[in-house]
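Hey,
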Amino acid sequence: QYIGFNTRSPVFREHRFRHAVAQAINDEEVIRDAERTDIAATSLIPIGLHGHVDAIGIKFNATAASRLFNEAFNDRAGAMPTVRMISRMGMETDIANGVAQVLLKHLGLTVQVTAMGNEQYSEAQKKGEFDLYSGGWTADFPDPHNFVDIFRSDNILNTTGWKNESFDSIL
């Protein structure tokens, strides 16, 4: 499972907000509080597959996250809206609720989690009716490309709006 940002959303258009939110999520705390036995991912590519790099990405640091969040918030006009997070009913909702709790705890950010059936969830993603989502992905076959290709800018499954020419050219 992973948490996706809607980079077209007014809340997360600005990279400092995305960075601060990612940095404020304590994966171990979320997993423990959801009473799950998962292992926190450190890479888009799972352990055991070629291309897995351990400890890549943004690490949990509540102090740095709060500082960056406040800096970014002070540079924008208006109040911070409630963040809309969608998840599919079931296990993804446990993780989404855990993320909402740690974001409130570490940033004071209110996240409204809406659990949906598969069809409603897919439709909300296509329409961009979310700020964050709890998602999951299982590869068709054990190849790293299966895990990173969904974030290619022209992939129909990339509902984040995120685009990066360097990333796309590598794929």
